[in-house]
Amino acid sequence: MNIGALDRRVTLQEPTSTVNDYGERTVSWGTYATVWAAIERKPSASERNSGEQVVSFQSVIFTIRNSSQVELLSPSYRISYDSKIYEILGVQEVGRSEQLRVITELLVN
Question: Total structural domains in the chain?
Answer without folding.
Answer: 1
